[in-house]
Amino acid sequence: MATAFDIAMMQERTEEDGSAPVVAVENLRKAFGTLKVLDGINLSVNRGETLAVLGRSGTGKSVLLRLIIGIETPDSGSVSIRGQNIAGLAIDQMGEIRKKIGFLFQHAALYDSLTIAENVAFPLEHHRRDMSRSERGDRVKQLLDEVGMVGGFGKLPSDISGGMQKRVGLARALALDPEILLLDEPTAGLDPISSGEIDELILKPQRERQMASIVVTNDLHSARTIANRLAILDRGKVVIEGRFEDLQQSDIGFVKEFLKQS
After folding, report:
1. 3-class SS at 252?
2. How crowded is the C-beta side of 84, counted as CA atoms within 13 Å?
3. Distance CA 69, CA 109 (A)
4. Per-residue pLDDT for 77 more than 90?
5. Which of 65, 163, 167, 261 is the most exposed place for a label (fewest CB within 10 A)?
6. Each residue of 32-63: pLDDT tens digit?
7. 248 φ, ψ to 5°?
8. Residue-level pLDDT at 19
9. Can you tell me whether residue 111 is helix, strand or coil?
10. Crossing angle of helices 116-127/162-173, nearest 10°?
11. How far is CA 258 from CA 39, 216, 224, 227, 248, in A?
12. Residue 6: predicted pLDDT
């Protein structure tokens, strides 16, 4: 019979070899009044994997991300991060979980009164008190260099384009070297060239750092580019999940129509 130590060691090995989901959503339900936004969602993502969640506007894609990061509370079901159910965690415990998660908001959500460098430094100043000012400065320079924005240190968000703001938002999301990256419509409103550049910037940390990523998007081309698996939502449920080739071969009417219109 396996002892508690044996079970703990098996769990640790499973986490290390990437076979256990880093994020697991089980039977998740969320409604606002009489409107069912998510109705029994089951999804997971492993280390080094990107899952793209697609669907029409208003299908609960962004709500799913807010539930995963703990901004919203599910009506039922669970969200687990590395095997830990986040429901009911104390504020300090949830704070530790969030340090492992980088979040790129749909509109970058940069602080208007802070420079680009100060925006990227913000999470470091609040969560990495062990770093000196010089170390934080080096880290900010490295991050901005990685997203092609090293020349914009002193600029304000209003001085740069929407695509550049997304780059800075991504740099800030990566500041704490997270295990999980959540992206809300990362290519929305961008031209095809800028969208392709953002896709490549998302792929880079996936390859180099083996992060688990979840991206919600209406951009099918971007989803095909960056994701290992895709899931399509409709009326609060997962209609289909799999590789893009699986979606193409589906006989489900909604899936066919969605692919045709996307």
Report:
1. coil
2. 14
3. 16
4. yes
5. 261
6. 998 999 999 999 999 999 999 998 887 889 99
7. -65, -35
8. 62
9. coil
10. 20
11. 20, 15, 14, 17, 10
12. 38
**CA nearest to 209, candidates 47, 77, 97:** 47
SS3 90: coil
pLDDT at 5 over 50: no
Domains of the chain: 20-100+213-262 (3.40.50.300)
**Which residues lie closer than 8 Å to 107 by C-beta, 6 or more apart?**
165
Decide the pairing of beta strands 84-85 and 76-81: antiparallel
- CB-CB neighbours of 158 under 10 Å: 9
Q: What is the pTM of this model?
A: 0.86
- More reliable by pLDDT, 93 or 13: 93
Which CA distances in Å does 29 have to 103, 235, 261?
22, 12, 28
In this structure, the number of other CB atoms found within 10 A of the CB of residue 254 comes to 15
CA gap 8, 5 in Å, rounded? 5
> Number of C-alpha atoms within 13 angstroms, CB side, residue 134?
0
Sheet with 35-45, edge to edge strand ranges: 35-45, 23-32, 76-81, 84-85
Round to whole Å and give the CA distance between 132 and 52. Answer: 37
Mean pLDDT for 161-174 is: 91
3-state SS, residue 243: coil
